Amino acid sequence: MAREMRRHTPGGGFTLIELVVTVAIVAVLASVALPVAQLVVKRNKESDLRMALRQIRTAIDAYKQAADEGRVTKAADESGYPKSLDALVDGMDDAKSGGKNKIYFLRRLPRDPMAPADVPAADTWGKRSYQSPPDDPQEGKDVYDVYSLSDGVGLNGIPYRKW
Fold first, then answer.
1. DSSP 8-state secondary structure symbol assigned to residue 147
2. Around 100, how many Cα atoms within 13 Å sit in the side-chain half-sphere?
3. Which of 20, 76, 104, 119 makes a 20 to 30 Å CA pair with 6?
4. Positive or negative CA dihedral for 69, 73, 76, 80?
5. Binning pLDDT at 50, 70 and 90, where does residue 18 land?
6. Exposed, middle or buried, 26 (CB in 10 Å: 0-12/13-18/19+)?
7. Per residue in 101-122, pLDDT tens?
8. What are residue 34's DSSP bridge partners?
9. pLDDT (0 to 100) of residue 6
10. Long-range contacts of 72-75 (CB under 8 A, 24+ apart)
11. In 3-state terms, what secondary structure has residue 144?
């Protein structure tokens, strides 16, 4: 009978120590993977922010060029920059075609990826008018530049507002 008790039966299962060690290893791996995953998400949002800023700024410059070329009508006291971000999407009548055609500068207005999802795209951006100084951007009669309203700081150490 004593011999039967000493005999190890195959497929008897895991011991408590094996399970504790396995859970500890999984916990360590998860604690390492979580910060890396958060860093990847932040890097992707920053990439989206750079792309959105580039698209909007390129469209603002194209609008200004069209105004300087006389394709978009403007008053003598206006800067030639769009009055709102929506004007870039809605388009403007092409003055050189007699108002028959429209000029579109953006297919859609990109939203700030750092902003809450329930805010309309145009309201996710801070707007700087042509008359506003660069170190204290203020809204005005036109849109000369855009910036993020987020208080966050990028991986490069520069606040998103200054990108």
1. E
2. 3
3. 20
4. negative
5. confident
6. exposed
7. 999 999 999 999 999 999 999 9
8. none
9. 56
10. 72/103
11. coil
Tokens of 87: 């004007």
**Rounded Cα gap, residues 60 and 77, in angstroms:** 18
**What pTM, to 2 d.p., does this model score?**
0.79
86 Cβ contact partners less than 8 Å away, ≥ 6 residues apart? 109, 122
Instruction: Output the DSSP codes for 28-80.
Output: HHHHHHHHHHHHHHHHHHHHHHHHHHHHHHHHHHHHHHHHHTTSS---TTS-S
Q: Which tokens sit at 161?
A: 């507002």
The answer for residues whose C-beta is within 8 angstroms of residue 91's C-beta and 6 or more apart is 102, 103, 104, 105
